[in-house]
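Page 47, continued from p. 46.
Same chain as before, 628 aa.
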Amino acid sequence: MSSVAVKKGLGASIWGYLTTVDHKKIAHLYLGTGGFFFLLGGIEALFIRIQLMKPNNNFVSEQLFNEIMTMHGTTMIFLAAMPILFAFMNAVVPLQIGARDVAFPFLNALGFWLFFFGGMFLNLSWFLGGAPDAGWTSYASLSLRSGGHGIDFYTLGLQISGFGTLISGINFLATIINMRAPGMSFMRMPLFTWTTFIASALILLAFPPLTIGIFLLMFDRLFGSNFFDVTMGGNTIIWEHFFWIFGHPEVYILVLPAFGIFSEIIPTFSRKRLFGYSSMVFATVLIGFLGFMVWAHHMFTTGLGNVANAIFAIATMAIAVPTGIKIFNWLLTMWGGSIKITVPMLYALGFIPSFVIGGVTGVMQAVAPLDYQLHDTYFIVAHFHYVIIGGVVFGILAATHFYWPKMFGTKLSEKLGYVTFTLFFIGFHCTFFIQHFLGLMGMPRRVATFLPGQGLELGNLISSIGAILMAVAVITLLFNVVMTSIRNKKVGADPWEDGRTMEWALASPPPFYNFKQTPLVRGLDTWWLEKMEGKKELTPAEPLGDIHMPNNSIVPFFISLGLFVAAFGAMYNPLNSVGDGKSWGLPVLIIGLGITFGSMLIRSLRDDFGYHIHKEDLLEDDKGGKVG
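Result:
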């Protein structure tokens, strides 16, 4: 390896990221792309709140409002929250379990590029005739009657990015099951690894129903089938079942990794072992199990009947129990600890009451008769934003500050971090707490305006001011990132000084091969145990030897690019129900699929055995040399 020249320059860096199969670089790609979509979804949210700042506002048209609202939800759930969590999973989980990479590095890269091209295809709808306009749930009764190609961008874009998510979930399952270091039993795994494991299992089981639903909707839209058209014998309620059998586990796919992040942050800055580790693991597994038994609480008003409503109401109430276990364990971890207030710890402290509010309002809606009153009001909007922002986004912002040193070797400014937290926390509660009362007063969701004299003016104004505060907070965070990158002040392996798990034993950022020698895990909080014995390095489980590594590949990029091209051909095929099929539609579909299957064929036929980093190069690296 020492004979391989290390390329420099912008072009080489871009090529390095286009072809990388290194989980740490893929983490950078997920973080950058997910961060871009997070900003896009935030701008869309700001447009919604500006439109609703006063009665009878005409900041945007009603049609454009529907498109913005649909794209805000779709972008934030599918293209921002989940990919950013994948960024931290990629950056941290292999290090936490003592692995040199994920189980399938090639598939890891493929998962990212599928997400990237699916997200780009979906957002091109803004420039090619109009965005989706049937809400992020895209209920079939609305989406089948939507004019233009907005819904087609939705079905095709989400299928492409959904394949990427499914691949990534399978990859993490295989990695955690098969690649743990010696001594790393399941009951010694850090909580972030556990929550990644359960969330990946949920992805494996929840994404197929969504894929099936979107596939059938695509056929209704593009090829004239009638799965959901009630006038032709179809059933529109089946779409809701398909969507929510995915949609409710999706909440836990997002929030469980955030729980895992807080389960790393709270013990670190309480300088104390996580209280009730076994019960936390059990609660995580139980949340994953119960998460598949509650989907129809989104459908209480569809007429399922008293028996079905009662069963799903009880299951929904039951899922609050393991969540409550987690809340008390986090509080008891802090109890008696030597708490150090840092930016990640501030987010953890802000998360607990915020998420509890979201959980309590969720249990309220589990009562079917009350849900009949609250359904489709702003009370629902307030509830799920308290769960998604109060849980998931707080977790993402905490992890950004906590893991930034490990990912990039620099530390974000704590002072600017305090400003970001303060603005975001105040803005968040201003925006959404008042919406509970707007909902109780009868304000319906998904409407572009409201009338004066209904008592809704002040609440909406406060909500919009809160959204502006959140926007200022995000701008402050971006400024922090830019200034930290310019200063480029490097930090050590354990920049927080109280790291407990194995990632904090490695250099920041870690070498591309992660561990020179596979570590031996001797208990929970492996790195903390080693530090308490006065050791400066992890105990190795093997002698120093050659390390096998996978080669980089451009093939995942082209497999994904082919599907991106094919999606345009499918959308403009001569049979589509919009009636604007193009003569070039079928050839473009064939060309795109040709690129994808051709790339897969090249991958199958080409022998790629990777390469070895030799023991001598590792020893040279120890002396201060650079392994290429």
